[in-house]
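#dry-run=false #mode=assembly
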Amino acid sequence: MKATIISVGSITTAQKAKRLLTNGGFHTKLVKLNSTKNGCSYGLSIKDYSTLEVAKILRGGNILYSVHSIDEK
Amino acid sequence: MIYLDNSATSYPKPLCVKRAVRKSIGECGGNAGRSGHFLSLKTAENIYNARETVANHIGFNCPERIVFTVNATHALNLAIKGLITEPCHVIISNLEHNSVLRPIISLQDKIGVKYSVFDARKPLYEEIASHVRPDTKYIICTAVSNVTGADVDIRILSEVAKEYGIGLILDLSQYLGHRRLDVSGMHFSALCAPGHKGLLGVMGCGFAVFGKDINPTPIFEGGSGYDTLNRRMPDHLPERMEAGTLPTTAIVSLMHGIRYIENHGVICIEKKLSSLCSYAHDNLAELGFTTVYGAENGIVAFNVNDISSIEVASFLDKNGIYVRGGLQCAPLAHAAYNTLNQGMVRASFSLYNSRGDVDKLIRALYREYKNSRR
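#status=ok
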């Protein structure tokens, strides 16, 4: 199953994003990430990722995010 | 035992709060926002639920702007010192607790902040407006006096602050849990409260709510669980102001305390406390040897003739009745009531008290007074 992992920053933002996306019908899992640019951060693994839908939902919650990676498992 | 010291901390706690504390030690044993394993994430979920519960309770739609602290004093220090970072003028009331007064004095000593004190017993709008100067940046005020229970109308405070374009920091220590608050549409910079008083959580948790577009300067720096390579605290709330590990168990207890209050009905609690205050006021006044200074918001403040309030509290303690004497950490209020020498006896109620408790207080006072006259 392919899942897209987005990075949102703090655990609080990740919790907020998770609630918004769950309410929007996405199946998500909270994950801890590491990047060379910012160090630790939290993000979400999202199944059936839709670029436009996710962007719309997260923008509605004033959440900035970046696509971290795509998990092919 | 009759516990009438709920303004210091509420006791007893509801059964659901006690159960939640026990459960959280097991279920929330991970450190929220630090690791990525199940226990850490489960704890983080509970902390976020608590943020949402606090936000919903006050009609605020930004749970991420709820900053958890260890108590109201911590919250007030974060708000006052995090928002006032350069010399300016602030206005405080004559009912403030030392948790407002001392941070202001500290800022006066360190960066030259000036302050004026308004009389909260005068018509509020005009009284505050008379103290506004061109360099006034904040009004910092309690919503309810922790000494007498006197109200300071927060809607008027908010109106004056908005009208003059200045910030408003409110101390809600004796307000939340006893009175309904809906901040939607209200002008404020920060609201500060403890979790262990009217909101019925255990000691060890409080919070500051920062208004939209308010970006306080961190007072503590340290781990935030993300943005690790940044040598400074992150830009975003709440982590910007929450350096280090949170008091998870106390936060979870606060969440369950609020849920309990909401199930019970804040208006029901308000009515009950109001009824107990009126009953205590009338019975104390009838004794003929007391002075009653106030009876509102679950607090009744009185003295017995010219006897030291500490002595009265000590005598009541021996009779299994727990009240607080002395100055209640609020010297400005005692100066205003001219009771700096005697202090006041403060009996403070919760939803668990009854008229029977007041009757026992009155009987004990009467008995002691008559014995002392023999």
